[in-house]
Amino acid sequence: MNARVWKKVATSTAFYSRQQLLHVISQPRSTPVQSAIPTCLHSWHLFSHRSVQQQHHRQKSSIATDLYSVQQQQLQHSKGVTTGINGKPLYKPIAFYSLIPIPRERVIALRDIIETRLSELDVVGRIYLAPEEGIGGINCQMAVPLTHMAQVKKFFNSLHDDFGPISFTEGLEELPEPCFRKLRVMIKKNLVGVKESIHASDLVDPSTHHLDPVDWHQQLCEQADKAFLVDMRNHYEYDMGHFEHAAKLDVDTFREGLDELQNMIKGQPDKTLYMYCTGGIRCDVTASYLRKNGIKDFKMLKGGITAYGNYMKSLSNDGNLGNDKLAATTKTTTTEARSLFRGKNFSFDDRRGERITSDVLTQCYQCGNPCDTLHNCANTRCHLLFVQCESCKQAMNSTCSDTCNDVLSGKKTWKMGYNYHRQIRPKTTSSSCSH
């Protein structure tokens, strides 16, 4: 394809991902989604079978280079460097939340203030704001250039009158590319979805029992499998990684989990409840729910799994236990042996998780081999979130089933409607993948 034609195609398809274009091009011409892409793409055969094979080959050959780049970037960071080997800035995931009543008019103003300032600092991510009528405040997940980290923290701390004191939780690693594709600052009714009405003022309670990672680790070590420990996340998050002996809420959404938790508590009436989530916000909302139902004997991990992972990493970096309380609970000398969390901490960004330990707790959906790499099905109308190894990814063209593979290749037409639960809960069995 000559340069002039390619420029025309690229301009016409600027808002579509490569995989979306591939999917649409391979559809029969009669499908409704076809109208979303300029007709010129079909005559030019932008994504021919040969080009897809070449693309897969290039992806394979770049793996070694990518691994080397990550290693070099980690080495540079240890020397205080904030840019990668290609001169581009390194990014760091960072998150925080504040559950606090904010008037609706101020929420609208804050949306514009935050979006403007973060755009100036090249920050990408998802920021949710909610007014005081519901579960109000702010919930932030961002990828921040290391060169702008101090400015971002200073900016949010300057909004103390709105959000109060902020406790930032940073990701475990620096990234060569941001883990979000763009910046989105949105207003929601509630920061966390619940069935019953909870006001923001209900969430501000000094009696909330937070445990820092050190105390959390110590108490769980002392109780071992006798602890009444519950993972407040969804089923697919738990499957990727969880604390030892933690009970699983086999649910698709947080609002469903509150009902299941109530049933669990009825079966353990005399035990202290220990609960945790990714960063802490779901546990804080759960605490309000429990108090409203007369339950007061519970404790929560402050900062969630991310804070615990950072604590474990700090012990590894300094080469010793680093805390007398922790030393009293364990005789091991390696971070992974000490960590009570196993596997990956699921993240709602392009990474799909941060590794805490080397344990792999899940299997490839198609071949059954140990794997904990999550993908979305390349058939964008399916979009199933599932575990897939690299071999099956290549053999199945990044799809979850023979049906979706046929849809992607144009042999079949997708006829199912949208269903959120189907997107996050794979069937028990899948099409086999031989490799």
UniProtKB/TrEMBL annotation:
Q: Which residues form a coiled coil?
A: none
The record's section on InterPro entries has: Rhodanese-like_dom (IPR001763), Rhodanese-like_dom_sf (IPR036873), Rhodanese_C (IPR022111), TRHO_N (IPR040503)
Q: What is the lineage of its organism?
A: Eukaryota, Fungi, Fungi incertae sedis, Mucoromycota, Mucoromycotina
Organism of origin: Phascolomyces articulosus
Q: Give the matching PANTHER family.
A: TRNA URIDINE(34) HYDROXYLASE, UPF0176 PROTEIN YCEA
Q: Which residues form the Rhodanese domain?
A: 223-317
Question: Which Pfam families does the annotation name?
Answer: Rhodanese, Rhodanese_C, UPF0176_N
Q: What is this protein called?
A: Rhodanese domain-containing protein
Q: Which domain of life is it from?
A: Eukaryota
